[in-house]
Amino acid sequence: MHREYEKEIQELLGKMTLEEKVGQLNHLCPTTYGAFAFSEEELIQQMREGKITFQELESMRLPQQDCREEDIRAGRVGVYAAVGRKEARRLQKIAVEESRLGIPLLFGRDVIHGYRTITPIPLGESCAFDEALWEQTARMSAREAAYDGVGLTYAPMVDVSKDARWGRIAESAGEDTLMNARYGAAKVRGYQTSDPSRPDTIAACVKHFCGYGFVEGGRDYNRVEMSEQRLWEDVLPPFQACVEAGALGVMPSFNDINGVPSSVNGWLLRDVLRKEWGFAGTTISDANAVAECITHGVCADAEDAARQALTAGMDVDMSSGCYPNHLKELVEAGQVSENLLNEAVANVLRVKFSLGLFENPYGILEEDPQPFLKPAYRQLARQSARESMVLLKNTGVLPLKPETKLAVLGELAADAGEMTGTWALDGKGEDCVGVLEGLKARGARCTYYASVAQIQQADVLLLVLGEKKCDSGEATSKTDLRLPPEQRALIRAAAMMGKPVVAILLNGRPLVLGELLGCADAILEAWHPGVEGGNAIADVLYGAYNPSGKLTTTFPNASGQCPCYYDYTPTGRPASSFQCTSRYLDVPMEPAFPFGWGLSYTTFSYEGLKVEKQENRIVLGVTVKNTGNRAGVEVVQCYFRDPVARRTRPVKRLLDFRRVPLSPGQQEQVCFQIPVEQLGYYDERARFVIEPGEFVFMVGGNSRDVLTTSIVL
Ligand code: BGC
């Protein structure tokens, strides 16, 4: 974190009036639709489709916060929702040239998985297990967004979530802590680079700090009850990794943990984030979250919410109005110390200095005739989509032969606009290549049918199934994870035709696939794959790209199995066929597909797993061989277990992974170097310990099928 601006910050603070200080903490949003991840246009569309009523649409509209020019001129706004290149420049000019101190505005935007060039949803992209890719796609979105006047993105989202009922599972890197840490840090590097003052960077505001992925019952915004151990071991490490990677912002979460909403949680925002981790950037509240502490029942009114949030360490109030309406009076009345206010303002100014806004408030100056969706960007989006796809099942029908006559079924095949998935605010349906277009571009012999009954000539039935984009993301919790009834009927009808069935899944969360598991000869999980989705799907179907993605989220067998995840701790009565064991009567304990699962068009073998300790590292070696007849990439996964400890430890936990490209017959010695520290845990008093004893290590191509070895430390 860049602390070299302290002199300038203090000088500026010395000149600021109370009102100007409060202004820096005010994040205005011109029109906010509740806390929803939809634009006004999309909500109106939903209303037209009868999904929401007019009253519901209106109830989502928060008070319009028109930013009047005189507010900017008077220094009453510090952060503003992005408004596009031209308007951003106009407003910035007012801030810089016409306000008393010329402090630039910072423009924030949800750039979650691409700006205009939409890449797969984060849950999808995490399945690539490719840190270089994660960084490159973040770099690409930063360039596009920065060109359009964006200075900060509310991303990456690194909420570990083990519950597919929660629609926001689409937005992070899945159920595993290490995955979220690696993914988040790569994104921070991509958005900010090592020099965030470059005009083509944007600040990363990592969210949602923290525990949001553990909302009770998977119901969005719900309460969170969590042990200190889970907090330290599962939830916090990805945030710490992002802070260490230099994230300039942190967004506290909506939820409470054990009764305290994050927006007013001083222990989290001051003790953990600042003191323990040394975070020197700024905290920005989630939309309206400061005011929502009143409905949580921990603040009496807006004034109390402003007082508690600022005191806890919330620097910026996004759109709730509590700070602009009350902070000045609270400081004047001595209820909030001016020092605390100064600290918060300094944090915001530090981010603005770090971004180089004082030297160049306008970002990328040169006009670019094609700032978005450049051919190279599309190419990267296609690569990212291909790497994200997970081949769940394949009896050999894939890859398809060019001459195969394909009957394509399912509404989603013909709806390119659905490819963007959730949180693609600046993505446009017309930019997307849908499944049908992708197949046609590849020269596939395919026909699109509205019903199975019409199909006579086809060799293979291609069912395009899944969820619409509005079915995952914020406020989209579900209790039933099965495919919709009409899709289940389609599957049954297709199965009756006696022809091979291939299913493509477009979705934002693990689904319960039910009869599809048996009926389909191949299942390709494509997630919501972004603007190049259709091309990428065709690449994989026809074998131009050999699939290599692995699941970062477990697929349950039934909705009632949630939360369903791989790194659970053992009970005293592990599930078995005996009656009094930890199991359900009506579903198997195993998931439909485990964490790390994913097939290829070739096969890989694992041999000769060895372990030794070298200084303070565990060194593991294994030989991985491509035993098939196609080149492919294997994601080699390394897990461990501490079988006896004072606290019960997960049956398996991911330690590291490696993407290994192998040509047919080629083998490679893959080596993992694991710092011993990674084997430690938080004891019953939340002290970090590494206990001596036996440690078991597992290496394989998924979390279930592994080679095992152990060592005594
Ligand atoms: C979401 C955040 C998002 C913010 C601003 C909130 O409703 O929880 O993830 O960054 O809105 O759009």
Give a written overview of the molecule.
The protein is α/β, with parallel strands linked by helices and 713 residues long. Helices cover 30% and strands 18% of the residues. The chain contains 20 helices and 25 strands. The strands form 6 sheets. Strands 9-6-5-4-3-2-1-10 form an 8-stranded parallel β-sheet. α10 links the parallel β5 and β6 (249-252). The two termini are 36 Å apart. The model is unreliable at 32-37 (pLDDT under 50). The chain binds beta-D-glucopyranose (BGC).
Largest sheet: 8 strands, parallel
Strand order of the largest sheet: 9-6-5-4-3-2-1-10
Can you tell me the overall shape?
Answer: globular
Number of strands: 25
Rg, nearest Å: 26 Å
Ligands, ions, cofactors: beta-D-glucopyranose
Kindly name the structural category.
Answer: alpha/beta
Overall average pLDDT: 95
Strand content: 15-25%
Helical stretch count? 20
Q: How much helical structure, as a percent, in the residues?
A: 25-40%
